[in-house]
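We modelled each protein-ligand pair independently. The example shown here corresponds to the thiamine diphosphate entry; the chain sequence is given first, followed by the ligand as SMILES.
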Amino acid sequence: MTSLPKTPLLDQVNLPADLRKIDDGDMPQLARELRDEMIDAVSLTGGHLGAGLGVVELTIAIHKVFNTPEDRLIFDVGHQCYPHKILTGRRDRIRTLRQEGGLSGFTKRGESDYDRFGAGHSSTSISAGLGMAVAAELGNTDRKVIAVIGDGAMSAGMAYEALNNAGALDARLIVILNDNDMSIAPPTGAMSAYLARLASGRTYMGFREFGKKLTAYLGKTVDRAITRAVEHARGYVTGGTMFEELGFYHIGPIDGHSFEHLLPVLRNVRDNINGPVLIHVVTQKGKGYGPAEAAIDKYHGVNKFDVITGAQAKAKPNAPSYTAVFGESLVQEARLDDRIVGITAAMPGGTGIDKFAEIFPARTFDVGIAEQHAVTFAAGLASEGYKPFCALYSTFLQRAYDQVVHDVAIQGLPVRFPIDRAGFVGADGPTHAGSFDTTFLATLPGFVVMAAADEAELKHMVRTAAAYDEGPISFRYPRGEGVGVQMPERGEILQIGKGRIVKEGTKVALLSFGTRLADCLVAAEDLDAAGLSTTVADARFAKPLDHDLIRRLARDHAVLVMIEEGAIGGFGSHVLQFLATEGLLDHGLKVRSLVLPDIWVEQAKPEVMYAKAGLDSAGVVSTVFAALGQKRIEVGVAG
Ligand SMILES: Cc1ncc(C[n+]2csc(CCOP(=O)(O)OP(=O)(O)O)c2C)c(N)n1
């Protein structure tokens, strides 16, 4: 007798409580449906695909076994949370992922009770989980806390700081190491090799072996002192894994796609263990979707795609991306200077360092997700006369601020900081916006801080940074493609602290720092047409400022508008400080400083975000009219 096909199980699950009513034996069917749903949704929205596909079974198993949201579940980075969102009351909005007004692409506290901790940046989950576990103990609840962290995220120092602390506190924390042997790119470093050895050296541990081990571990009583003694004795005899040495009870590896492994092990941990536990789960990134499994990057992040073929939608670019221009320009300079080295923190493709690595593998260093280390490592190289280009996204450089201050800037070491993803980044939202780098770098004595206005300027800045050996130097540029300007054969060495006038006028001065220059030029046409003759200048440097240029703009114009893709406290603030110090504000000059708004701006298309922030050409024009107390005169409308 053939059995009838089962009605879709996913339709019966709005919340994890519904999932807990379904039989264990039906979990594989639910996993298939969840996977299909996720693939379909991401094919429409784009986003992080591979990571979520890899944790479908794990996510189901955790919600089935633990009493979420009372038990706390934290996903490291949060980019693998789409199956979790579907299972926690957000299936009806899953096709709004990463869209304006839609669901965030990461876990987000305001979005759901099931998102107990927001993320976007990596390697925070064990620390946050430890805080929650300690809170549970202080509050006398027996709530469980589960942190799911990938092998890539496990390469960051913060994860070890947390493990170290958790072991010492003997906290009731469950860490699930989701080992798919992938970061965004293949993982690097000794830790990744260690995990691979662990995963290959031991066979998968199923329920039976785990049960035996657990009984041996716990004995008949669950007395903490005794279990600790047993644990220590066991570690002493067997040598113990690194996690055991840190005070964790270490289980695994187990097969992260097998409910027969996952469910009993998680139930055992839930019911029997009182101290820190690390469950090593082996999964496959992109699992269950052929094109993702076959792709080198396992479809870590994708555009919209065709579900049948896996082909991703690609807009035909009009100009090369800033990232590509950076990578190619660095290669060009490095061919002429063998002291140039390239550093990336687990983002070779995202930063363009992959291009450099192809030609100069021995001069390329992928340090793992370890921005702090990347910066001090670069400082060490610079102290020996090398020219390190430490290529990070603006948002991830935040993590290494003390290293920038203490190890680089105070010592005046010539580390080069190419800063990608400056300004709004679009779908990744506020955790990934490149808002603060100008503010936090331009305040440091001796730092040279540049922003590229277009891709040709970026090429000049790569060459300038290569040539500049007096101290630290940074240059920022946005995500996406350039404006399509004519590219020079090779970059020029820019004069440090000198901006340029792009267009001369007499009444209004627009002083741009970064790629808002294009919008300023459009605004200037509009203003000229309205009878307000406009000068447009590209500052190039936020530090040192071009004092002569600013004096000229201030003295020869009635209005001066500064504009940048950065938060308050950056370029505009430095110009205002200078104007005030020189007394240039005392004679009726109207000055306005356009910066990113002082709120966390949610995801949307970058052009929409800039328009809302008043940082597009229309925003510039209306700022000028408002400063002059005039109503905007419509121009360019055929009469
Ligand atoms: C501090 C920080 N640096 C870089 C990134 C960019 N990033 C996002 S996911 C990822 C790889 C994470 O690998 P892993 O933890 O193994 O998760 P997987 O995607 O393999 O599931 C990286 C480098 C980040 N989110 N945070």
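Residues 27-45 form the longest helix (19 residues).
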